[in-house]
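Annual report, structural modelling task.

Input specification for the flavin mononucleotide complex:
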Amino acid sequence: MATSKLRTYSRYTPWMLCILSALFIVWHWSPASSFMMWFLGVIFIALSFLGLSDFRQKHHAILRNYPVSGHIRFLFETFRPEIRQYLLESDTEKLPFSRNQRSLVYQRAKGASDKRPLGTIEDVYKSGTEWLTHTANPSGHVALSSLRTVVGGKDCTQPYSISVFNISAMSFGALSANAIMALNKGAKMGGFAHDTGEGSVSPYHRKYGGDLIWELGSGYFGCRKMDGTFDPDLFAKVANEPQIKMIEIKLSQGAKPGHGGVLPAAKITPEISETRGIPMGQDCVSPAAHSAFNSPLELMYFIRELRQLSNGKPVGMKLCIGKLREWFAMVKAMLETGITPDFIVIDGSEGGTGAAPVEFVDHVGTPMRDGLRLIHATLIGAGLRSQIKLGASGKIISAFDITRACAIGADWCNSARGFMFAVGCIQARTCHTDLCPTGVATQDEMRQKALDPEDKAHRVFHYHQNTLHALSELLSAAGFNHTSDLSADSVIRRNEAGIAVPLSNSLLHLEDGELLLKDANLHLDRHFFGLGKYWLDASSHQW
Ligand SMILES: Cc1cc2nc3c(=O)[nH]c(=O)nc-3n(C[C@H](O)[C@H](O)[C@H](O)COP(=O)(O)O)c2cc1C
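The model returned the following structure:
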């Protein structure tokens, strides 16, 4: 306890040393003091007041948490481009996001210029390079307000018009209360959606009234019985709040698919306990699997139950594709029951997390673009695509990232870490230690105070707004009026052999209703050899 307090306050050491030095000099000062004594006295007094102003200001979280010493970071930041350009890494090195990507978010969030001088620094001839096919006849102005899509299939009575760019699931618990408030207020200002993450709906999600997607993980936080199973009455109470626009069942998360989670008893504050509906003093376990359904068929019945309990709000699921057989089993369950989710969010293995085992982060789960295309194509093949909207998440930061995901099949995109950068995350990668230097991913009250929700809400709003603006310009350049006009022919990719080909050349493509025909497995094999076997093996009765 004493050590952790010491650790909390140790960041004020440089500021305290300045104050002590100033007091020491003032104490020993006399009119006959040397020039050096005068000089040092002025310096230390100035630094002491600088520390006080750092501590009290709300604009820079780093300075608030590290008065005086925080300026060293900004000093180094000033020299950093030069030092790095000559000595260290490249601008495009990704850890996991490159400096270019983070700078883009910071600039858009601050409303600063995001223009680049003197052309691209990328090698456009290297394999993997991608570009949008523009037109000789741009479409002109694309209104930002039109960049939305309506979610809600045939059984949904309260469809939701969602922005094409939204805040991905991140729980209160993983993020600080102040970060959640900044995100939700930004979402309210910009009219876009904020996913609660599986930690349920906290008072911080409710404070500003921004649109919420309520995520239900295997722990059913916010709607669970004492034994951790799903409680329909509690669910109905929250789901019918007007602020909740959609319900999302989390099957898996790209960064750690198939892995549950434990929130240790020590980290459970009274607020988290109340928000999640869990007791204090006990570890809170998110099981790896759901208890409300045990097969693809039961998943469809659960979707129907949630839709009824929420009085017809859109109900969907979030998953990272794993075993192909299981995905096909879900499609078969949809076809057999006639029950379809209103939406599916496809998360990729490149996605983020507060903390996950390294093997899971690096080697479990299908990357977003592969999973997205599989789901998009098979839903077309099953004749279900028009009833189900698709969201995508996984390293989506820029307007081109949105464009590419929509070209592959997404109707909208979510970003988690993009919006973390917008509220001040500097990619320190300390989310799992509770020592986040900017107050974004911590429950330490002192640290999170450094993040001013009002100030950062404007950054969230501007990041969203300026990204949509860039997206509208891209769409116009390609001659389109909406992201739904994009197709896999809209983006060209230089393949391993150095040849530039449309994305459509390498992606699974099925004709409308093709999987409803006899010998659907042969149709799949014709497009992608080997896929047919998984279709044959898939049963709606078991995973
Ligand atoms: C700090 C943090 C917490 C997260 N918490 C959740 C969560 O509660 N539920 C969930 O489905 N995904 C969670 N995610 C994953 C994101 O919602 C998203 O799927 C993934 O990070 C991909 O998006 P990104 O590349 O834009 O970060 C979390 C991600 C981060 C970075």
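Residues 2-65 form one domain.
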